Amino acid sequence: MSKQINVALIGNPNTGKTSVFNALTGLNQKVGNYPGITVEKKEGVCKLPRGLKAHIIDLPGTYSLNASSLDESVVIELLLNQNDKDFPDIAVVVTDVENLKRNLLIFTQIKDLKIPTLLVINMADRMSYKGISLDIAYLEEQLQTKIALTSTRKKIGIDTLKELIANYKEVPSEPCLDIAQIDANYFENLRKAFPNQLLYKLWLVITQDVNFGKTDRKEFDAVADFKTKSEGDLKRLQQKETIKRYQYINNVLKKGQTIDATQAKDLRSKLDRVLTHKVWGYVIFFIILMALFQSIYDWATVPMDMIDSAFAFLSEWTKDHLPSGAFTDLLSEGIIPGLGGIVIFIPQIAFLFLFLAILEESGYMSRVVFLMDRVMRRFGLSGKSVVPLISGTACAIPAVMATRNIESWKERLITILVTPFTTCSARLPVYLIIIALVIPDGSFLGFSYQALTLMLLYLLGFGTAVGSAYILNRILKIKSKSFFVIEMPNYKLPLFKNVFYTVVEKTKAFIFGAGKIILAISIVLWFLASYGPGENFNSAENIIAEQYASDNLEEEDLEHKIAQYKLEHSYIGIAGRAIEPAIRPLGYDWKIGIAIISSFAAREVFVGTLATIYSVGSDDEETIKNRMAGEVNPILGGPLFTFASGISLLLFYAFAMQCMSTLAIVKRETNSWKWPVLQLVIMSVFAYVVALIAFQLLK
Amino acid sequence: MNAFIQNILVITALILAVVFLVRKYIWKKKKPKKGCGGNDDCGCH
Hints:
The complex is a heterodimer of chains A (699) and B (45). Chain A is built from 31 helices and eleven strands. With 699 residues, chain A is α/β, with parallel strands linked by helices. Chain A folds into three domains: 1-265, Rossmann fold, CATH 3.40.50; 280-475, no CATH class; 515-698, no CATH class. A seven-stranded mixed beta sheet of chain A has the order 2-3-4-1-5-6-8, sandwiched between helices. In chain A, helix 12 packs antiparallel against helix 14 (346-362). Residues 210-215 of chain A have low confidence and may be disordered. With 45 residues, chain B is mainly alpha-helical. Chain B has one helix and no strands. Residues 33-45 of chain B have low confidence and may be disordered. The A-B interface holds A 323, 325-328, 330, 401, 404, 516-517, 519-521, 523-524, 527, 601, 660 and B 2-3, 5-7, 9-10, 13-14, 16-18, 20-21, 24-25, 40, 42-43.
């Protein structure tokens, strides 16, 4: 009986490796376990031409020979141990034609172990759908191997593969990469210490903690001449090795593989062609954004009004039914209106996250990142900056942290500095309430003015971020480069469960994160607004009674005047009036000034602060929106929230760095106070100037 | 008596609120690092 050829089937997960195994072995296969571990061992026999037979082992799917799991260590253990009865005469690496670049990494590693290696390019039937063409002769020459183009689904190429296995002695075993390139000194010492061993095998032994037969890791410590490196240095060398391998693969595929997306015929490619088109891609994205903001307004208005009224009722009920006193006032005038100022935005926030989760789940968001990459490059940023900028629409803090995968320090710093311009969800309550107050009803092309304004604010934030990046790119003289690779996921129908969890989690984080701060600030604000120093506050009733003695005011009007007088002479009133000269040119009164200062803790505190300040001393059952609409400008006499002051306020919040937590995270990420301080000063000054110009032009 | 209790409650709430804000923004308590195997300082470990 002739000797069976030992064949190891190796490849990344999802390359169709098991289908190739099934096609080769048919029913001649058995499934067991590797000794001592629960990893499944599949082996079978394949009949080859000329009466030859192959013993085939389907090894667990692995991305590389840098083992991180038990499954992967099984592969390395076999490939490093020539004494194993299953040690392959030939390795067959199965790849997916759509992910050739990534799949070739392990191929180059096995080649470097000098094991004869065949390359199977599977799912070849997808090539015409994907517009992929391969120069097989060129690839065989460059990769020093034999290639079988297969499709197990269409039963193509299996006979060729059997023929190649039968002729395994003709398959070259030259390595792809000289591992010594990555650190000449280190590998020279290693070679001297172990002159009879294959260098790449030694390198794998050093970097893997696997049990591989007769060679024992302790041997390395016994050789005095050779000093191995620290774990961190070894990891850095491994990264360098991976980069070298991808550079090699890129060079080979540059000529050996052509992908013409215009020739692709599958649904995904057709959709991609439209959704990432240089004109239609942006038009569709713009329409989706419009629909998103319109829906936020159309669908959220009813629940928002209901919540607003419920809090107004609760506040009134507390005042009427609890024993009168300071704590009841704190509840009805401080805590309830303050919390109401955040809870009313639950519907809008939930709808925003619902749409974003659907776009993310469906795979469309990756196309948006790809689209935006084109724009970003013109402004000196790479596509990697897009992810932080887009995730900044939820919150700038994780977005700033997401810049960590940008290799270029310059690009990373610029992205960190400009990310707070993107419209985060904390700005949304401010925008929604101000837009509702100052933007008139009406529509343009079916989209309401209010939805259009909201969308313009989002675009303004993104535009300012990109524009600032362009300026910073010119100013900062740091030389560095990075490139952007994104793997597009397949389109799929969003899973309801995933979308639901995302919406609940994000809304909960927003409400509870801001809720605790708002609760605390409401208590402090109420106290500062309800108490004050000196005669003016303590004798407010007498002073007002004397002042209006001749006017015969009704009791209600008189009480209102007293409440206003007390508020103005309370601690917060004194502080607010001290800063009023600085903000009056922007169209704001001292109460807005206090709200701006308190919202430095978190932007969403703005509405809650105003709700608390306007509630102090008031007996009316009023919603937050109505209270704000009823505020009178102390200088001009008309409504405080006009079109001019509203736009000024919107622009101020669009540009100002009103978030202490973001500054703290910028300090941590840049490891310096210089950048957050610069960010704070520049953004605040810019916001002030723009808001000032807007009010002065529009008033 | 009622006014006294209400004042006590207000002062307690005020102290708690101030302490919360000071600890959140000014005097932060350092969290001990948990040994979960993560070492990338991403804040998620």
